[in-house]
Design a protein that fits this description.
Largest sheet: 7 strands, mixed
Shape: globular
Helix content: 25-40%
Length: 356
């Protein structure tokens, strides 16, 4: 039995650094020495006013876990032990974690769409995750990395997978004009991936100057504040026609309307932002034969992203704006939940000793 320091969610506002027992990996499982774990907006929502996704009364169907749980679903590490039946991950293998659970038997899983498994969930939200010195995960979650792959950058592969899956779900094709509303980590990665995949024009909109500046560095042709004449600027950048695909990466009525306003006749709005309800102008959509497509999570994205990083086509380290030690995790996360600040992606370095 291994013990580990772990950042544990007990309730909204109640986050604790605790020592927990880590059981040896069972059949089809691996034990990781965690290197880095990214802080996601969903973590901060759980800390601020959760539970939203964290099970508190009934254990999750696949993880068998309920609160208190170890947070963190954006993580990387090294294989230090394996359970029976694990042959493809030798000890010492560096991995990124694709943290979504899958049952393998529901209709979606049988169709290969495990991102919408009937028992949908993520390690770090519906089960113990990676804000810990060690973590046990199913073998299918562990994606091997090439030798020398930066484990800090590997912790950003998870939001990159969200971005790539959204692009795959859309009708985007090389040579098209696109709009990205919301330049948080996923929106910035959408910009970078669209540029890499041959977008003719990438327009990014966000109220924060630092995020607009980074979007321009990552490949956005035009960056705007929502206070600007966004509709006019989108029209100017697209010869008055509008974009082929608009990516909404915030999850609000205002940003949905802004994305839709930039869309050309016959265009598509890809909804990545999480939102409970939206008012949809159905008559307008019908008259312009516009389409709304949704995207959640990811499937089979990590290998493509790892290859893109390995040959220099994608720089995930550009999004990392802060690193804190595991000891500092609870205090830092509570502060971020009340005021996220101007940073893009904060990583937790998952060792008990504070980083200098």
């Amino acid at each position: 039995m291994t013990t580990a320091g772990a950042v544990r969610w007990h309730a909204a506002g109640d986050l604790r650094l605790e020592t927990v027992d880590i059981s040896p990996p069972g059949d089809g499982e691996v034990l990781l020495a965690v290197a880095y774990c990214g802080v996601c907006g969903s973590d901060l929502h759980e800390i601020a006013d959760g539970p939203h996704a964290i099970p508190v009364s009934t254990p999750h169907a696949l993880s068998g876990t309920m609160a208190p749980i170890t947070l963190g679903h954006e993580f990387s590490g090294t294989v230090v032990a394996v359970g029976t039946g694990v042959d493809a991950l030798p000890l010492g293998t560096r991995v990124a974690v694709e943290p979504n659970y899958r049952c393998g038997t529901c209709t979606a899983c049988r169709e290969g769409r495990y991102e919408v498994c009937a028992a949908f969930g993520f390690a770090g939200l519906m089960g113990d995750g990676g804000m810990a010195e060690y973590a046990v995960v199913p073998e299918y979650m562990a994606r091997p990395l090439p030798d020398g792959f930066d484990l800090a950058a590997a912790a950003v592969l998870e939001p990159a997978a969200v971005a790539l899956h959204g692009i795959r779900r859309s009708t985007f094709a090389a040579g098209q004009a696109v709009l990205v509303v919301g330049l948080g980590p996923v929106g910035l990665l959408v910009c970078a991936l669209l540029r890499e995949k041959g977008a003719a024009v990438v327009i990014g909109i966000d109220p924060r100057p630092a995020r607009r500046e980074l979007a321009a560095k990552l490949g956005a042709s035009v960056v705007l504040s929502p206070d600007d004449d966004a509709a006019g600027a989108v029209g100017q950048a697209t010869d008055g026609v509008g974009v082929h695909v608009a990516f909404e990466v915030v999850g609000s009525q205002q940003t949905f309307d802004l994305a839709l306003a930039g869309l050309r006749t016959g265009g598509e709005l890809l909804l990545l932002g999480l939102v409970d309800e939206l008012v949809v102008p159905a008559f307008r959509l019908l008259n312009k034969e516009q389409t709304i497509t949704t995207s959640v999570g990811y499937r089979d994205c990590h290998d493509e992203l790892i290859a893109m990083c390995a040959d220099g086509r994608l720089d995930l380290s550009a999004l990392v704006t802060g690193v804190v030690g595991l000891d500092e995790g609870p205090d830092a996360l509570v502060r971020m939940a009340s005021d996220p600040g101007e940073g893009i992606k904060t990583l937790i370095h998952c060792e008990r000793v504070k980083r200098p």
